[in-house]
UniProtKB/TrEMBL annotation:
<feature type="transmembrane region" description="Helical">
    <location>
        <begin position="763"/>
        <end position="781"/>
    </location>
</feature>
<keyword id="KW-0472">Membrane</keyword>
<dbReference type="InterPro" id="IPR013783">
    <property type="entry name" value="Ig-like_fold"/>
</dbReference>
<keyword id="KW-0175">Coiled coil</keyword>
<keyword id="KW-1133">Transmembrane helix</keyword>
<dbReference type="InterPro" id="IPR011123">
    <property type="entry name" value="Y_Y_Y"/>
</dbReference>
<feature type="coiled-coil region">
    <location>
        <begin position="800"/>
        <end position="827"/>
    </location>
</feature>
<feature type="domain" description="HTH luxR-type">
    <location>
        <begin position="916"/>
        <end position="973"/>
    </location>
</feature>
<dbReference type="GO" id="GO:0006355">
    <property type="term" value="P:regulation of DNA-templated transcription"/>
</dbReference>
<dbReference type="GO" id="GO:0003677">
    <property type="term" value="F:DNA binding"/>
</dbReference>
<dbReference type="InterPro" id="IPR000792">
    <property type="entry name" value="Tscrpt_reg_LuxR_C"/>
</dbReference>
<dbReference type="InterPro" id="IPR011047">
    <property type="entry name" value="Quinoprotein_ADH-like_sf"/>
</dbReference>
<keyword id="KW-0597">Phosphoprotein</keyword>
<keyword id="KW-0812">Transmembrane</keyword>
<protein>
    <submittedName>
        <fullName>Regulator</fullName>
    </submittedName>
</protein>
<dbReference type="InterPro" id="IPR036388">
    <property type="entry name" value="WH-like_DNA-bd_sf"/>
</dbReference>
<dbReference type="InterPro" id="IPR016032">
    <property type="entry name" value="Sig_transdc_resp-reg_C-effctor"/>
</dbReference>
Amino acid sequence: MTKCIIRILVLSIILVPPIVKAQIKKIGVPFITNYNPKTYKAASENWDVLQDSKGMMFFANHFGIMQFDGVRWSIVTQPENKSMVRSLAIDKKDKMYVGAQGDFGYAIQLPNGQYQYTSLVKLLPESARNFGDVVHTVIRNNEVIFFSYEEIFIYKNNKIKVIKSNVKFDDFFEVNKEIYVLDNAKGLLQLKNNALTAITNSDQYAGMKIRKIFQTKNGLLLLSQKNGLFTFKDNQLKPFVTEADNVLKQNQISTGIQLSDGYFGIGTRQSGLIVIDGSGHLIQHINKQMGLQNDYVTNLKVDKEGNLWVTLKEGISLIQISSPLSRVLDTSNSETKIYCSQIYQDKLYIATDNGLFWMDWLSYKNGKHENANFQHVSGMSENVWNIGVFGSSLLAFEKNGIFEVSGNSAKLLAKTDGAWKGILVPNHPDLLIVGGYNGMYLLKKINNSWVYQNKIKGFEESSRVIETDKNGDFWIAHGYKGIYKIQFNKTFDAVSKVEFYNQKNGFPSSLFLNTFKIDNQILFGTTKGVYKQDSHSKKMIPEPVFKKYLGMENHIRLLKSDNQDNIWYVSGENTGKITKNPNGSFEVEELPFRKLRYLYVPGFENIQTTASGDVFFGTQDGLIHYNTIKNKQYQTKYKALISEVKCIFPKDSLLFSSRFDVLPNKTKEACEEISNVLSHSHNALHFSFSSLFYDEADATKYEYWLEGFEPKWSEYSLQTEKEYTNLPENEYVFHVRAKNIYDVVSEEAVFRFEVLPPWYRTIWAYILYLILYSVVIYFIIRYQKSLAERDRQQLILNQEKELLRSRAELNEQRLTLEQENMAIVRENLQTTINLKNAKVASNTVNLIHLNEILLSIKELIGQMDKKNDPNVNFSLLTKINKLIDHELQGDKHWNEFEEIFNQLHDNFMQRMKTTYPELTPRDMRLCAYLRMNFNTKEIAPLLGISVRGVEDTRYRIRKKLQLPSDANITEFILNF
């Protein structure tokens, strides 16, 4: 039994269509992004769409194959005859097969990014080349089928099989890997073994103009152009009645798509897109009034993210059918900024800046959008700030006062200077406190109707944000001042006590404070997280649970609980839901609400929940609905893409690009030769990049890194281009990554290139430099040698000149020295001669005088001999002695000597007398003899004294000259 149950479950999982990202919501209109011809800059008509393995989108456009990479549109190639492209198909290797007008072939991407188209028409015989539009291209197994109204072409092994029609074919279908062809004359045919064979009762399909066939669990579903839908089962063709029959039959079906959740998308010529379920119930009708830019749908394609691409006669639309968010729209779209929403008595009310509106919510929820329009509630046409159900009444709070709403009209309850919000008094369900622009007002319920009582005294501040706690106290948040805690008197007509809290009481700031009531507890939203009041210190402290899950860095703009005890919040730019798990932990969900970033009215963020699970977000872009049952995969992989690389100089010199117009004349061989090795003159590059993620593509951020030039990745930004200039020679790798609105980071894209050094730093330049250097060195050496030789010769010449000059100088010095020596010798000789002369003169004088004395003595001795008388002799001897004594003591001869001596010795005697006046004449004589360099023995007889007497005289002279004992008196006399 258990095995049987398991088998049944497995089969049910396999056979039942899974609820995946392609499921489309019934409530509201999915988000639509329109791309018009001005945006993609090509022809308005688009006929087909496909996505390659990387995620790139391609469109069959009147101008050729058009590509969209999430940021940029471009025509990548054209058929050889420049005709419009009508159909596309792609194989596992991203080889695109193209059906055009009068042409078909394939396109492949070259290494430089270009797509090259190759026509296959040349394989046809001349008789088969006259055909029109190839409206279908299908790849099946190892063959490609091109379908035109005149002929069918089967391409296999570089050969083409041609199947012609006797009349004309009407359409072509691929159903569960089987090929069917609708022939205008023969009806529905099946293509097998390269031949067309009629199916059972095939002729009943002739003229039906079938536009699509789907395989379903109830057989085949046929979409006819003008007669609606049919089912084919057990060889029976029956009409398939749907809730959209009138629209389908009146507006002509053009195409269709089977969605993976069992829904069918049907494109029409005059009324846009219709979505039905397998039972024929209308799920969506999206036309021009609902946001589609054109009502003529030519083709449909679901991409890897579950988005539905709609090609139109004019433009392209992207419908985000996989999103759990949708816009609540009607044909008038009269609402603008939404400040609040409320479901009351099965009606949906929205408070806007243009008044209050309502619609039949049950009809809208059941898919009857065309009969569900927002209607204006009369009586209010200005800003309606809030609406709420109090008891059994719906009250609206407007710029001009307080209104009670009934149906499509409103009654003024109290004209006040602006009313923000109403709140019931705890334990007093008949009392309503209304916060106004300048204080508060009291309303009381009398006879089941609210009646204005009075303005409450004692408080005049703006009271837009107001809540009550379990003690009955009122908390009012003033966005620019702080938080007020209010207590009323017993009659609630006056304020009895006011407590004020701001940054001084623990808040991170006094600005942008909010107050909320969660689980019967008063919490405060600040610019730095959620706070609460400490029951003991009365200080404001961070709330621990919200601190853990929301952090302390974001501005908490809204907290609100729903009927399932979930907590909805707006924190910073993010909207989210906190769900409490059975184990007490919490789970935070933010990804489904990333689309709401920047859509709220600042300061008036509002989320409305219902018991049935509907969630409404009031935004600047209308009312947005969220379905909690709807699942979408957010963590899907996708790729970043380098769209184009070009050198800035010379201008727009492209290295990589898929744009068809940039290298229109390049052959395949030339394109493949393009290298990423760049000369130094091309060292300024411009990179364009994108990501192949199309859900809110404008919100995708990018980071990049030029490896070899930058140390790390850049910060994430919305920038999709980057330039680098003056890159030095090196090998580089440009990296780029994307991060989508759901914070999923893409696969990395890289572009490798090399910048060569400038010509003057290449290897050939260095070789040339080496050769030039060697030549220069050679000539320098030669020049140096010549200079050295010349310097050597000059040096030799200079040395010879110097030698001659030195010899001349030496000769001159020698002559001078000889002359000086001769002069000295002559002077010395003269001095010697003078001394000798002096001696000679002195000796001569002395000799003469001595001769005279001897003659006198001779005479006296002669007289002694003649007289021979002793007395006479004695007398004569006495005279002789006196004569001798007189001569010895006389100065006559000395004076003559002194005069001659002074002439010879520069007045020596005069100078000695002047310098040393103590010297006696005898002393002067001794000095004179010493000057003449006589020794003691020679001096003694000249002075007539003994040698001992000479020594004594020398000693006396030394003392008079004051000479030290070790001084030589002779040297002193000679040098004086």
